[in-house]
Amino acid sequence: MRLEYFQMIDRFTAVDVGARVARAVCKVPMESPVFVGHFPGYPLMPGVLLIECMAQTTGWLVSALTGFTGLPALAGVKEGKIRNAVFPGDELEFEGRVIHEGSGYAIGEAKGWSKGAPICDATLTYRIVPYPSKELRDGLWQWADRINFPAREYAK
Amino acid sequence: MSTTFDKVAEIIAETCDIPRENIKPESHAINDLEIDSLDFLDIAFAIDKAFGIKLPLEQWTQEVNDGKATTDQYFVLKNLCERIDELIDAKGA
């Protein structure tokens, strides 16, 4: 997990675009400036970053489903729940499902676990917006390779 | 038409917390009911699900931006319901 870069996923472990589901894992770093403030003497993974983990897991899947024709921008979080505390060093697993692919938007459902126990879940809305630059889209392939996401296979 | 409108009005009332009696066939979703684009995504999702269709929001937005259509054609509710009925018919054809 590259916490300071907001690149939350270490590796996708399963991507089934046909079934509209993806699973990913990441390990919370032992040290990060985030933990200096959250909280002094009691490092605790902020719940909002668990939402981001779910959003990125499902967001990559949305990108594949839409052929990387636009950036899935997180637009809504419903029924977001943080069920258990997450600490530095914890190994996390996330699952994202796309339950609806609309015109210019998508709806996903995501869950997270630590040591098999649920830590978070939410329903996520994405707007599919044009990439602000060619460089951003081109840069995705390297990022995708690093996290084992088969992006090129689905790019239109 | 009335069935489609009733269902759409129910969806809007529930999604946006607008009193059902304020939602009329002549209401403009944006101008009269003040539904913003994010809330309209929730409505579109509920409509897509309820009718088994996919509202072509990207195409409509493009047409409005290009000056080829007005928002009235897609966002006045009686017109929206006509578009929905057309999409349902096209699906069954």
Alpha-beta content class of chain A: alpha+beta
Note the overall shape of chain A: globular
Major sheet of chain A: 6 strands, antiparallel
Task: Please give the number of β-strands of chain B.
Answer: 0
How many structural domains of chain A? 1
**Count of the separate structural domains of chain B:** 1
Major β-sheet annotation of chain B:
none
Across the major sheet of chain A, the strand order is 1-2-4-5-6-3
Distance between the termini of chain B: 18 Å
What would the principal axes of the Cα set say about the shape of chain B? globular
Query: What's the average pLDDT of chain A?
Result: 96
- Integer-rounded radius of gyration of chain B: 12 Å
Topology readout:
The complex is a heterodimer of chains A (156) and B (93).
Chain A: E1 11-16, E2 21-27, H1 33-37, H2 47-65, E3 71-82, E4 91-101, E5 105-114, E6 117-129, H3 134-146, H4 151-154
Antiparallel strand pairs in A: 1-2, 2-4, 3-6, 4-5, 5-6
Chain B: H1 2-16, H2 37-51, H3 57-65, H4 71-75, H5 77-92
Structure, explained:
The complex is a heterodimer of chains A (156) and B (93). Chain A has 4 helices and 6 strands, in the order ββααββββαα. With 156 residues, chain A is α+β, with helices and mostly antiparallel strands. Chain A has one domain: Roll (Thiol Ester Dehydrase, Chain A), CATH 3.10.129. A 6-stranded antiparallel beta sheet of chain A has the order 1-2-4-5-6-3, covered by helices on one side. Chain B is mainly alpha-helical. Chain B has one domain: Orthogonal Bundle (Non-ribosomal Peptide Synthetase Peptidyl Carrier Protein, Chain A). Helices cover 65% and strands 0% of the residues of chain B. Chain B has 5 helices and no strands. Chain B has helices at residues 2-16, 37-51, 57-65, 71-75, 77-92. In chain B, helix 1 (2-16) crosses helix 5. The longest helix of chain B has 16 residues, at 77-92. Chain B is globular, with a radius of gyration of 12 Å.
